[in-house]
Each structure stands twice: as C-alpha cells, then as structure tokens.
Design goal:
four-stranded antiparallel beta sheet, alpha+beta, Arc Repressor Mutant, subunit A
Length: 133
C-alpha cells in the first residue's frame, strides 16, 4: 500500500494541537510550552500521526512513513515507539491523552482532556455530550 503524504506544505511548518506544539524543522515537541525529551524516531512517529489528525493510520502505513520501507511480518516497532511516545506525553501532560489505539488496524492522533480518576484508577477521556436540538 503506498503511503499517503501529509497535506502539501506541512512538512516543516509547526503544528499546534491542543497544548502540544510540534516543530519539524527543530524536531522538537513542546507540551504546555515545555520541551519534551524525545528521540528522532519518536518525533517522526508522533509527527506522522499528528499530520493525519483524527484519521486512523494503519500500522503498516505508519511504518512506511517513519522507517521508509515495508514493514516485516510480525514487526512490533510501531507499537514500541507509540508506547514510548505515549509515556513521554503522559509524563509531560498528564491531563491529556493524544494517541488512541484501533485494535487490529493502527493508531489515531486526537488530543483529549482526561478527567481526574478516583484514587488507584486509570484516567478516563472526557466525553462531550452532543448538543440538544
């Protein structure tokens, strides 16, 4: 499957998504204005997803975008790097969740605030009720 490029002209332009700012020219991520310690490969993974905001990106497509070639059978590199990025984002901005898993397909970048969990429980994404008509 050929990869789908990001929107034209977005390769080096800074992206602002909720409280994150991705600066491709510098390979930097800022969370609430503070730099996030992130490797080049982690940055590329996050950028590829952020440039396709709200779209489920299949694991094979994400691999091709970041690693530049076809994904080998049973390769878990994408999952490993998404997990690393999630951990770093959670440490930098614990009130947010950015990366969503679509089991058997891939990942989606969609920033969401999370509600404060009761003691000992995982954070829950904030759900917004549809407007009443």
């Amino acid at each position: 499957m050929p990869t789908r490029p990001a929107e034209p002209g977005t390769r080096w332009r800074a992206l602002r998504c909720a409280n994150l700012e991705l600066r491709p020219a510098e390979r930097r991520v800022l969370a609430d204005g503070r730099p996030l310690g992130i490797t080049v490969r982690e940055f590329e993974t996050l950028l590829a997803l952020a440039q396709r905001r709200n779209r489920v990106v299949p694991r094979t497509e994400l691999y091709e975008l970041v690693w530049g070639g076809p994904m080998a059978y049973r390769d878990r590199s994408v999952d490993v790097f998404v997990r690393r990025v999630r951990i770093k984002l959670h440490e930098a901005a614990p009130g947010w969740t950015y990366l969503h898993t679509h089991f058997g397909i891939g990942y989606r970048f969609a920033p969401e605030r999370v509600l404060s969990p009761p003691e000992g429980r995982e954070p829950v994404p904030e759900r917004r009720e549809p407007p009443l008509e």
